[in-house]
Design goal:
Blueprint (H helix, E strand, L loop, with lengths): L1 E6 L4 H10 L13 E3 L5 E6 L4 H6 L5 E5 H7 L4 E5 L5 E7 L3 H4 L5 E5 L2 H10 L4 E5 L6 H4 L5 E6 L3 H5 L3 E9 L1 E5 L1 H6 L1 H11 L1
Parallel strand pairs: 1-3, 1-4, 7-8, 7-9
Antiparallel strand pairs: 2-3, 4-11, 5-11, 6-9, 6-10
The protein binds 1-O-pyrophosphono-5-O-phosphono-alpha-D-ribofuranose.
The site of 1-O-pyrophosphono-5-O-phosphono-alpha-D-ribofuranose has 13 residues, from strand 9 and helix 7.
Length: about 200
């Protein structure tokens, strides 16, 4: 039996689509149950927060997981990257009203974000003094209300930025969904994992 952690939210639907397309019949239960099996009973799926997928995998609670590169880079979990599924494409960006919100500042730049580590590292690499303000959602509001000068966040369609009068100032990296594996399971369950992977490829 292989256990696979799936991320709640934006990557869930696309993950299920990929699995079904590859012949692994899955349907999320309508109840509040947080795990389910595929039609063959060979695979067990866990429904977890996107930020927790790699934690379940690192600590062997799941053998495999599907996680966005954005979250993987931010959480720095020790997992084995098996395969880029190419789903859930988005970009990690710095956004704001315009470039002057960063480059004309004499004091440190205030950055609102859910991605504290990524934001810290980005501004450190650029040699810009940044004060990182952690938020848990609706990040685009922060510069509008003067809570921050800019944001570091993901952009998918670009609609949220546009409709809040913000634009991309810098692109940091591109992100898609990655299949990750627990480092021990990768060896102890190699045949099963290889078979699962062969369905996906
Ligand atoms: C994410 C992200 C942006 C938005 C980008 O938020 O933080 O706000 O999606 O998508 P778009 O470019 O297609 O508009 P999410 O929907 O996860 O909600 P949140 O603000 O509660 O984190």
């Amino acid at each position: 039996m292989i256990t696979i952690a799936l991320p709640k939210g934006r990557l869930m639907d696309e993950s299920l689509e990929v699995l079904n397309r590859c012949g692994i019949g899955v349907r999320v239960p309508e109840s509040r149950r947080l795990f389910f099996y595929d039609n063959s009973g060979q695979y067990r799926f866990l429904i977890v927060r996107a930020q927790d997928v790699a934690t379940y995998v690192e600590y062997s609670a799941a053998d495999l997981g599907i996680v966005g590169r954005d979250v993987l880079v931010e959480t720095k979990r020790d997992v084995f990257e098996l395969f880029n599924l190419g789903i859930g494409y988005c970009k990690m960006v710095v956004a704001g009203k315009d470039r002057s919100c960063i480059y004309n500042k004499k004091t440190s730049v205030k950055v609102a974000t859910k991605f504290v580590n990524i934001a810290k590292e980005h501004f450190f690499r650029k040699g810009i003094n940044a004060e990182i303000i952690k938020l848990y959602g609706s990040i685009e509001l922060a510069p509008l209300l003067g809570l921050s000068d800019c944001i570091v966040d993901i952009v998918s369609t670009g609609r949220t930025l546009k409709e809040n009068g913000l634009s991309v100032i810098e692109e940091i990296f591109e992100s898609t969904g990655i299949l990750v594996a627990n480092r021990v399971s990768y060896y102890t369950k190699h045949t099963n994992i290889k078979e699962f992977l062969s369905f996906l490829k």
